[in-house]
Structure to design on (495 residues):
């Protein structure tokens, strides 16, 4: 991909850098060439500043003398490199750039001193011009081609809305292919949801990919369907202002930054927010829900539980789990999962936990809990979402406090003639154990396959949940299986 841009002010160059920063990833390189004073430093400073967290202001010196300037507190670690004073490629090799490439996005001025391309994921920018005017010749390779094509699709989508002049800043990406940006226009803010249609993965069972068996959302249509239904039921799911299902793009309501998980980590008093979230779950159990979404059937729960054998076992043992072990694991689950089936189909969010709940104190009642990441909703047992909330994989909820909150849910539902507290207790333990099992596998996969070892720090917490759930009398057979075949999953100290 080759393009040419003309900028008529330093601000235009800075805005170009900010746009490219939206697509920065560790392992990608931006090579900056051009004569002294042609705008390379203006671009580099704007690019690094755009990666700062919470609009943090910090000094960005030129690396002319240090050669390598590192920024490790930005959203993505950055290595700003100036090779002007080097005369041979061997001198560049001594800087350890290959090692930095595994963890940083790299801005390299005078890249011709390298003597070779460091990666296939290279964006080359050649600056020229005088005074206020700059010409940038762009050549993209590897992942940068996909990123720039996607960026163009987003810009074309925005031109059909009144957000075409908005300032775009990266908000977050999650463990999937979804991305989010904040759109700012004067005093208004909205969220751009970037959710391209997910291609099917390889078949894993009966000729079907994992996503189909687990009933994971394939694209934006699920978000639109679920959010509209939640809003019609009186819940605070983000309103959708505009969307293009084919392109996987939507402009949705910005519910603010009071995310439950962040509040917990920052020491907020979470009693009222959590009790309100529980009241919301109890209210959801009183509704009649359409049966147009997928059921959280045994096959879906089994394929999720199998993530333990597929990823956690190899992570611990350095080899694949034997077929006999996986078959015995599935057999035990098939014996206990029927005990956690709800006769009445309820909508289950499946990820009703602290990263996906937003506190809205200006609203009233249960509308004070905002619901995001709703697209994987299924028909299932309400105990699953309560387990998701009170057995949060990323933050600690003291067991005594969790028990008090659990009892609060029971009290809210005790006048429901359809509610059986004993059956609910069994379902809560089973779904809690299944969820903990799945998450241990997911965290191992994120560390091993996706190069995200930060999730490993949460494993001891998830192990504690698993141990606690397995102590329920209905799970005795599963507890015995873990003790005999995979005691590492029960080790509280495992990390």
């Amino acid at each position: 991909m080759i393009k040419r841009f003309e900028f008529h002010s330093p601000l235009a160059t800075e805005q170009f850098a900010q746009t490219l920063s939206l697509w920065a990833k560790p392992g990608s390189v931006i090579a900056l060439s051009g004569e002294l004073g042609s705008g390379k430093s203006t671009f580099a400073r704007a690019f690094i500043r755009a990666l700062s967290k919470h609009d943090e202001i910090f000094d960005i010196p030129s690396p002319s003398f240090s050669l390598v300037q590192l920024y490790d507190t930005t959203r993505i670690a950055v290595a700003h490199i100036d090779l002007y004073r080097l005369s041979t490629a061997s001198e560049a090799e001594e800087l350890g750039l290959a090692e930095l490439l595994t963890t940083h996005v790299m801005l390299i001025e005078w890249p011709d001193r390298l003597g070779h391309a460091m990666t296939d994921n290279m964006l080359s920018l050649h600056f020229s011009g005088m005074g206020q005017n700059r010409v940038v010749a762009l050549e993209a390779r590897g992942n940068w081609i996909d990123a720039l094509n996607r960026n163009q699709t987003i810009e074309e989508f925005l031109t059909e809305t009144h957000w075409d002049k908005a300032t775009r800043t990266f908000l977050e990406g999650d463990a999937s292919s979804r991305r989010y940006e904040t759109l700012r226009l004067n005093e208004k803010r909205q969220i751009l949801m970037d959710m391209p249609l997910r291609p099917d993965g390889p078949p894993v069972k009966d000729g079907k990919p994992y996503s189909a068996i687990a009933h994971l959302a394939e694209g934006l249509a699920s978000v639109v369907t679920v959010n509209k239904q939640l809003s019609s039921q009186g819940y605070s799911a983000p309103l959708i202002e505009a969307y293009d299902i084919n392109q996987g793009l939507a402009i949705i309501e910005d519910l603010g930054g009071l995310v439950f998980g962040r509040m917990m980590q920052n020491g907020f008093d979470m009693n009222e927010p959590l009790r309100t979230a529980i009241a919301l779950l109890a209210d959801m159990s009183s509704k009649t829900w359409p049966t147009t979404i997928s059921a959280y059937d045994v096959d879906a729960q089994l394929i999720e539980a199998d993530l333990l054998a597929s990823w956690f076992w190899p992570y611990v043992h350095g080899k694949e789990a034997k077929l006999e072990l996986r078959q015995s694991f599935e057999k035990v689950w098939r014996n206990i999962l029927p005990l956690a089936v709800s006769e009445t189909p309820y909508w289950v969010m499946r990820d009703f936990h602290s990263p996906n709940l937003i506190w809205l104190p200006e609203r009233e009642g249960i509308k004070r809990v905002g619901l995001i990441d709703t697209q994987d909703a299924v028909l299932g047992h309400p105990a699953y979402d309560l387990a998701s909330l009170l057995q949060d994989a990323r933050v600690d909820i003291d067991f005594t406090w969790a028990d008090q909150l659990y009892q609060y849910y029971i009290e809210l539902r005790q006048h429901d003639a359809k509610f059986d507290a004993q059956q609910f207790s069994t379902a809560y333990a089973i779904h809690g154990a299944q969820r903990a099992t799945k998450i241990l596998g997911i965290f191992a996969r994120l560390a091993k396959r996706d190069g995200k070892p930060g999730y490993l720090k949460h494993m001891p917490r998830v192990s504690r949940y698993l141990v606690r759930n397995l102590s329920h009398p209905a799970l005795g057979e599963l507890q015995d299986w873990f003790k005999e075949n995979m005691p590492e999953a029960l080790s509280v100290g495992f990390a």
Remarks:
- The longest strand covers residues 122-128.
- The mean pLDDT is 92.
